[in-house]
Amino acid sequence: MQVEVLTANDLIKTAPVFGQLSFDDHEQVVFCNDKDTGLKAIIGIHNTVLGPALGGTRMWNYASEWEALNDALRLSRGMTYKSAITGLNLGGGKAVIIGDAKTQKTPELMRRFGQFVHSLSGKYITAEDIGMDTEDMDIVREVTPFVTGISESIGGAGNPSPITAFGVFMGMKAAAKYKYGTDDLEGKKVMVQGIGHVGEALVEHLTNEGAQVFISDINHERLDEVSRKYNATIYVGDIYSADVDIYAPCALGASVNDETINRIKASIIAGAANNQLADERTHGKILKDKGIVYAPDFLINAGGIINVYAELEGYDRKEIMRKTENIYNTTLEILKSAERKNITTHNAALQIAQQRIDDRKRENLN
Ligand code: NAD
Prior knowledge:
single chain, alpha/beta, Rossmann fold, 6-stranded mixed beta sheet, 6-stranded parallel beta sheet, 13 helices, 12 strands, globular, binds nicotinamide-adenine-dinucleotide, Glu/Leu/Phe/Val/Trp_DH, NAD(P)-bd_dom_sf, nucleotide-binding, NAD, Glu/Leu/Phe/Val dehydrogenase dimerization region
């Protein structure tokens, strides 16, 4: 029998939205268009059972609108599970603005985007993501209260990256406890890929713990700066086949893919990047079969969302740190549960998150 392979164009013809590869029972998808400011945005609202859909806005020069829609769908779904597993009363949403943040972002465009967010009456709450910063959220705040990640001077919780890094560090320690029987990272060789906002703060935690830190980045100035500051070793060569104990992806997503997965020598993968597994099913299974412990990204990088949630709930820094530290316990629990059930760690985390959503749905019906 001949199997017909559908191209992206075929899919568009047969199933414009509801049958998309990344469509996963999303509640609502909003297309925002404004000719005057040049705004073209898509807001993906995946699930609001646990609360309003919160997730950042990404501005990116997408190769096509199809790619932008796919990103909004994929990222908003990820937010649903991130908040659910972290125990936050938030749903999952994400927005993408099509365009180059360096040349096409204007205050008018951000204000217009904010008006679209406002039109959803709080069902979607935005924050910053790639291509956005606190100042942009401050502009959005001028036209809607449904925004987080604003400046501390106007009631925001400030930069989430150090909190994210602390959570990743906690998740990494839990993975070490599970794999090596101790969460002490002293002497462990750790490769940090991407030493931006989160990566650098992670390097600091690791250095303080006495780990042997290797760093890799495409930005050579940052490499020199971070290497000098923390006495970390700049790694030159193929980072995947490097002889290290832990690989921490802190750059872009999908770094664990068909090309890299069989070269990975590390026994633990724990990092900040979203969607680290190019294909969560296939690559999650390969890691499991190889005995590589994968700390699910959406679980251990939740420090940032815990930080912005504080803006909505009004809890303080101490509570933010307590909730983020708890990533250690949740990670350990997930890793053990994956072993018991003989499933991938990614699936174990998804199951627990889904269970929380299903339970709340039942409660809401009663
Ligand atoms: P960032 O832009 O500050 O840093 C990313 C770094 O990765 C940059 O230094 C960049 O030069 C480097 N990089 C890009 N491509 C690379 C490559 N191929 N190899 C090596 N280095 C490369 O971003 P960030 O805020 O530090 O976030 C890092 C990752 O964590 C992102 O994937 C982000 O989505 C995710 N994340 C961040 C937060 C947060 O609070 N900032 C929260 C959750 C998830």
